[in-house]
Amino acid sequence: MGLTRDFRQTMGDRVRRDKRFARSLLDEAATLFLNGEPEAARLLLRDLVNATVGFETLSELTNKPAKSLHRMLSKHGNPSMDNLAVIFDAVRQRLKVELKAQTVRAA
Question: In the chain, how many domains are there?
């Protein structure tokens, strides 16, 4: 049997090494939320937080307890829009990127 690496470690290493990849993940998390897939969006955002800011630093940036942030971004979490905005903003600032929402007409 071959050696394997933990997915989170692999993803975290790539996010830290490849800023374009990190920006793409943040964009995908926002897109998932806007397209009605909040569970997938929360889990992707949680992985991105772990790889970039970390929950302890996110706690300091958002003035929210780390445990609460973990719960918000869990599979069954239910963060308010205000909390999501603060989390997205903290990650966006860490990655030094802009998020811009656009509407696309259905075909």
Answer: 1
SS3 annotation, 11-79: HHHHHHHCHHHHHHHHHHHHHHHHCCCHHHHHHHHHHHHHHCCCHHHHHHHHCCCHHHHHHHCCCCCCC
Residue corresponding to tokens 């958002």: 62
The pair phi, psi for residue 66, each rounded to 5°, is: -55, -40
Q: Is residue 4 part of a domain?
A: no
Domain that holds residue 18: 10-95
Has residue 107 got a pLDDT over 70?
Answer: no
How high is the pLDDT of residue 86?
92
Which residues have C-beta within 8 Å of that of residue 17, sequence separation ≥ 6?
none
- pTM strictly above 0.70: yes
Q: Which amino acid is at 97?
A: V
Structural domain includes residue 37: yes
